[in-house]
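Exercise 3.2. Students should predict the tertiary structure of the chain below and write it as structure tokens, then compare their answer with the key that follows.

Predict this chain's 3D structure.
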Amino acid sequence: MGVLVAYLMLAYVMLPALWSHHEHEPGLASLPMVTRTASGIPGDALNVGLVGSKEDVLHAMHAAGWFPADPITWRTSIDIVGSVVLDRPYHDAPVSPLYYEGKKEQLAFEKPEGRSADKRHHVRFWQVLDQGTDGRPVWLGSVTFDRGVGFSHDTGQVTHHIAPDIDAERDLLMRDLREARMAQNFFQISGTGPTLFGRNGEGDPYYTDGEIDVATLVIDGVPQAEPPVTLPPPQLIALKDQVWHGISNALSQ
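Answer key:
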């Protein structure tokens, strides 16, 4: 009987608690962590977050070298085709819409890679909490790298295809915010969980450790004087991430 009780406590209480983050934003714990396409197909996984007002987000992303994406119109659609075909710069090219809990992204940014819009880093954000623990809005987002243009594996439509290592894009955005001194602190929350053979809404494969990195932004774009604090995850999560990064490095090679 004692062994049974010990097993039940270990398997159903202690180990699940160790695997769970002590969430710094408890209002996010029950939210879904995957976006959807307009057709309802599961899209990109959420992997980044920001804490701050819309103005704080705009200031921070500008300082970090990310351009706001243009809305999709006939003119911008023609411009992005011209950028790809003629290898012309288009730093604020539009991004295709994704939806989170039925809402299209409220903000989108990109960072060019090369001359044209064929390859680019890009991120979409949704405001998911009006007030987080520090009284400011909380945003969740999905950042990926467009590695080229092709046809959707699911619909056949012309689209960008993403690179599979979405953790690398998450790390890039957080590093850009850090180097621009636009973050007060960084912390991690639970996302989709470890995923080795994920597929987004266009059928592109991706893999991730399943964590979401969140930056608490400076106010009004005033650069942070002191280095930002990084709040550590629980030890078992850190160990899991270390093992996973070894796997992802092997996959990337």
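Discussion points: The CA atoms of residues 182 and 222 lie 7 Å apart. The two ends are 50 Å apart (CA to CA).
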